Amino acid sequence: xxxxxxxxxxxxxxxxxxxxxxxxxxxxxxxxxxxxxxxxxxxxxxxxxxxxxxxxxxxxxxxxxxxxxxxxxxxxxxxxxxxxxxxxxxxxxxxxxxxxxxxxxxxxxxxxxxxxxxxxxxxxxxxxxxxxxxxxxxx
Length: 139
Description:
With 139 residues, this protein is α+β, with helices and mostly antiparallel strands. Helices cover 41% and strands 22% of the residues.
């Protein structure tokens, strides 16, 4: 299997697991992003003297950041969660977002009670603070 597709090859003939980057290095699409390849692509773009390379680098960095965010869960609770509850939350998130999901837990007393979870652009807020804000907005 070729590491990249020639420019004249239609995209329908390229395996789904590989996208051709501007510098000809395949970057995995399915599953986790290969950090080494991403660093290589970013380095080549940064060194490139071709017109538009910096704009492409900026877009590439944004995509890498979005991919990282999509594979990271931030869980906030008003009080520390016990070990079994942390494990249960992690298992549920891994089932929904994939086994490679990294989960970090923190305490935020401003939530008053409940839990707030952020994965990428998805936010699940079941905190007392959010319920009070929703109630206030309705009144």
